Amino acid sequence: MIENLGLDFISRTIRTTAVVLFIVFIYGLYYFDFYINLAILSGGIWSIVNMLLLSTLIRSALTPGEVDKMKVAGLALVKFPLLYVSGYFLLTSEIFDPLYLLIGFSILMAVVILKVIARALFGLDKKKLNTEPLQEAR
User: Fold this and answer.
1) Backbone dihedral region of 123: left (phi > 0), alpha (psi from -120 to 50 degrees) or beta?
2) Cβ-count burial 23-50 (b if 16+ within 10 Å, e if not)
3) What is the pTM of this model?
4) What is the number of domains present in the chain?
5) Is residue 62 one of the residues assigned to a domain?
6) Do the beta carbons of residue 72 and residue 57 sit within 8 Å?
7) Is residue 133 assigned to a domain?
8) Within 32-97, where are the H helices?
9) What's residue 52's pLDDT?
10) Could you give the percent of the chain with pLDDT greater than 70?
11) Contacts of residue 16, Cβ cutoff 8 Å, sequence gap at least 6
12) Are 108 and 52 in contact (CB under 8 A)?
């Protein structure tokens, strides 16, 4: 049950980040320049893809039983050189300001931090783990 909580947390965080990015992009079109919004959106999408690839790579490499080495190598090949080279080109692009890319990169981490704080304040982990009633000894 604890394993499902971790994977569920990652998928919910990615969905929440996508919704936050969409809302920021829509409202940002009214208040900011188009390229500022595009930089924030690009940074956020890059961080979502990074989290997806990282979680898939870890789940593929650390499975109980036989590990699919081709899948792990393919994911590592996509994540490390290709994703980080694309991030480098985003940062060195003349169109995007690195500050707004950094804001986009940080949105996922802000969502993670806020979700963890909310789970700690509302005690959601305790409620999920203690769903079964205690059986009294007779």
Assistant:
1) left
2) ebbeebeeebeeebbbbbbbbbbbbbbb
3) 0.83
4) 1
5) yes
6) yes
7) no
8) 34-61, 69-77, 84-92
9) 95
10) 86
11) 111, 115
12) no
